[in-house]
Amino acid sequence: MAKPGTAVEHPFFARLWVRMAPSIERQGAGEHRQRLLHGISGRVVEVGAGTGSNFGHYPAGVTEVVAVEPEPRLRALAAEAARDAAVPVTVVDGVADRLPADDGSFDAAVVTLVLCSVPDQAAALAELRRVVRPGGRLYFWEHVRAERRGLARVQRLLDATVWPRVGGGCHTARDTMAAIADAGFVVERVETFAFPDTRLPMPASPHVLGVAVRS
Ligand SMILES: C[S@@+](CC[C@H](N)C(=O)[O-])C[C@H]1O[C@@H](n2cnc3c(N)ncnc32)[C@H](O)[C@@H]1O
Three-class SS string for 133-179? Predict the structure, then answer.
């Protein structure tokens, strides 16, 4: 596991994600992104931007997006996506637990499918809180620990074995809602749902999507 503040290099996962990302969008990710980002405005920091799948969903009220992405392959694709975005997007290198930004310099922060992968959730969320102004908002869409005990047990087993190795440090059993609250964000709205919505739940199916206010 990478230590907080160190570079993130997951070249295998980066290649995998480039292949997976279009099928995730086809399964309905775009609708979740659109719903999440509806109403976001001002200066925004997006952390772990991947290939830039959120960029096309930022509404006109967004004045600037600073998109942080540590993986070189993904960052290059995000920079391409930024050119087609309707709002100004600058893609930069950086990691979640050491953001290249001043205190309180953003109106909002966005994380989608990222808090599962950062080496230290508390450190990442503390950084997000640092760079968002008081009263600003954290927009999140993340897969999380299952409510069902059987599935949660499977998640813990996977996290202790293969999942983080093939998934670029991804963990399935994180209690991300608790971590968001512990970091000093007050949840304003949250939905829980399965994605993808398959008959048999997958280890990374349980999702949360919502907005929290920086206290
Ligand atoms: C599953 S992908 C999601 C990409 C994108 N947010 C999306 O919704 O499509 C996880 C992303 O988190 C990034 N990531 C992993 N560890 C990170 C860290 N410590 N700091 C910032 N980003 C990180 C990965 O490089 C990758 O882009």
Answer: EEEEEEEEEEECCCCCHHHHHHHHHHHCCCHHHHCCCCCCCCCHHHH
